[in-house]
Input
Amino acid sequence: MRILIVDDEQVALTSVRRVLKRRGLPEVEICDNGKGAVTRIKDQDYDIVLLDLLMPGMDGLQVLECVKPFRSSTEFIILTAVDDGSSAVTAIRLGAYAYLVKPVDNERLVLTIERAYERKALAAGLAGAGGGGDRAGVPEAFGEIITQNPRVKELLGYAEIMARGGNPVLITGETGTGKELVAHGIHRAGPTPNGPFVAVNIASIPETLFESQLFGHIKGAFTGAERDHAGYFEQAHRGTLFLDEIGDLPLNLQVKMLRVLDEKLVVPLGGAKPVRVDVRVVSATNRDLDEACRQGRFRLDLLYRLRSAHVHLPPLREREGDIPLLASRFLAAACSRHGRSVRGFGPEALDLLLRMTFPGNIRELAQVVENAVLLADSPLVMPRHLGACSPSAPAFARSLCTLKENDEIHVAFVLEHVGGDRKQAARILGITVRQLQRKLRKSQ
Output
């Protein structure tokens, strides 16, 4: 996140910059006059501009009016001692995001900046999503993610912009929704894309080894510690540490995690000298951490620190248009891996995929398609190739049957598609409601 502070008072410039840097916003520049600010804003791309009103030569409203047409995506926050309603109205009309009157509480200032940044990110996501096509609107850093869903594209646009600041990001969503892929994208879009990306599954670490694995240990710290060991934080120095299943972090270690995030220092187990680490933390969970906080299983202060930015991934069943796109990609990949020549999906097979709930989301869809490719005995995937992976597959997924069975299957198929509306089903089938009722009684 690139921030420019414009104020003619040197004390104000340095104090605000110091506050922002302490909050993990290192790219903060200062300017002490309006004319210089206009030149810099036009020449450079800032995400946020904090703008004072009363300045000699050119005041803040003149600066805003002059540069906003050229930098429509930059968010401007007025930070001034002028407590005047008409000035506030004018500033908002000219495009300012917020009008803050000094002295401003540090928490409120940082929160306002974050909210402005979120709006910028969402606007970027919405603009990108309108490009059409399955890749249009997907940021380059998130190129591994296959989607044509506008909602997902918005989220990725937001994640890309929030990634630039280097602050912690929390990714939530059901299992199999692609949280680690998003974490990789955040790393690539962040300030240290060439640094290490260290992925850790918290749930897989034995509780007795948590502290040693996360923070490291020195030789002799415990039985079996035959040499110094750099923990995950040190391994991820100048890069990204991805903590999957963060909800499983033991309560007694949550205090230490919070301290590391605040102080950027780790103390290896058995050691006395702290080690400085420059790490961007991205965490993920499929649990409700707010509920965990209410139950006393997760620290609220740690949650706030981890959730500087929050990305919630929708389940596959809510990603309209993505199932056919993903299934086709998985089919091509599976055919390449296994040397098969399956061309695609039959209409009934595709219909079956569209109506499955996929509690395992994208991961489950990939496995279903993989199995179908291995089972396929025809050029197209048919419902029978998917049935083994879907115990709830409807009756019309059968392959060979008698004419009577086929009649029953088709009636059931139509009824299911119209939500059980017998009048509508009869109209589609070309029979009366009474004839439909007789068919249903015979099939029972």
Notes: The domain at 3-117 is CATH 3.40.50.2300 (Rossmann fold). The two ends are 65 Å apart (CA to CA). The chain is about 45% helix and 15% strand.
